[in-house]
Write a structure and sequence with these properties.
By secondary structure, the protein is an alpha+beta fold. The protein contains five helices and six strands. Helix content is about 45%, strand content about 25%. It is globular, with a radius of gyration of 16 Å. The structure holds zinc ion (ZN). Zinc ion binds near residues 6, 8 and 33.
Length: about 140
């Protein structure tokens, strides 16, 4: 599995557990080169879904989440690696129990992470988050900052 940080494809599995009543396996992996820890999930059909405020569902898109957080942290002392860790932790939290999550739930988790890290990033994200309809909307707004 390619490391999301350094792109090497050598890693070791440090933890492996059955999830969702045995329908999936969650693996914690550590990159042999840079020691970044990341999580992979194995399912018959790996389709995480997000329910938007409108009630529409869409496939979870990690890139969108990274883009949203990156925009909130622009010119702040938060590096890409920290953002990757945040995204990874949030994915772990929201998809540990279910294949589906609400955008609201994801937004709140992002806010709680940013609050611990940096007030400015938190405020930026919060101000956009209040008015967003989906991840795409707030990414658009953030890019205008
Ligand atoms: Zn690595």
């Amino acid at each position: 599995m390619r490391c999301p940080t350094c792109n090497q494809d050598q890693d070791k599995v440090i933890d492996s557990r059955s999830i969702k009543n045995g329908s999936g396996i969650r693996r914690r992996r550590e990159c042999m080169k840079c020691h970044f820890r990341f999580t992979t999930y194995e399912y018959l059909q790996p389709q995480f879904q997000v329910v938007k405020r409108s009630g529409d569902k869409e496939l979870f898109n990690e890139d969108k989440m990274v883009a949203g957080i990156t925009a909130a942290c622009k010119n702040r002392p938060i590096n890409d690696l920290t953002i990757k860790v945040i995204v990874q932790e949030i994915e772990d939290q929201i998809f540990a129990e279910s294949f589906i999550a609400q955008t609201k739930q994801i937004g709140e988790l992002i806010l709680s992470k940013l609050k611990e890290l940096d007030n400015v990033s938190y405020m930026r994200f919060a101000s956009v988050y209040k008015g967003f309809n989906d991840l795409e909307d707030f990414n658009k707004e953030l890019s205008n900052l």
